[in-house]
Amino acid sequence: MAYKKFSEHFQEILRQRGLAGEEEIDRFLFPKIEHLSDPFLINGIDKAAERIKKAVRDKEKILIFGDYDCDGICAIAILALSLKKLGLEASYFVPDRIRDGYGLTFSAIKQFIDSSP
Looking at CB atoms within 10 Å, which of 15, 50, 105, 109 has the fewest? Predict the structure, then answer.
């Protein structure tokens, strides 16, 4: 298997992280699109997809409420680029951890509305 080209130390770290067996480690290190799970298994995704279709059809503006950690910032960028390809105008809001706290809050929404043109 391809993962064997990595050092024994690295292979041991992967095993300690719960990856068992050569095939599972190879799938983790060398992912393929066909290995992704069906996104429609996510609860409510069908409603979200319909809502985005409506926004595209009606040329609505979209606000992406993000997160300030590294995967949150990446998710904002991916979603913003994807929505742009669909022809949507998307803004984003990244809350301040100290001022806004965690998650979507009324104060964060008010702050965004107050700063919108």
Answer: 50
Rounded mean pLDDT of the chain?
A: 86
pTM of model > 0.85: no
Q: Write out pLDDT tens, residues 58-107.
A: 988 888 988 888 888 999 999 999 999 988 888 888 887 788 777 888 87
Could you give the 3-state DSSP secondary structure of residue 79?
helix
DSSP single-letter state for residue 38: P
Specify the residue for token string 């059809």. 57
Q: What is the Cα–Cα distance from 98 to 46, expressed in whole angstroms? A: 34
Distance, CA of 32 to CA of 46 (rounded, Å): 24
CA–CA separation, 89 vs 84, rounded Å? 6
Angle, in degrees to the nearest 10, between helices 8-16 and 22-29: 100
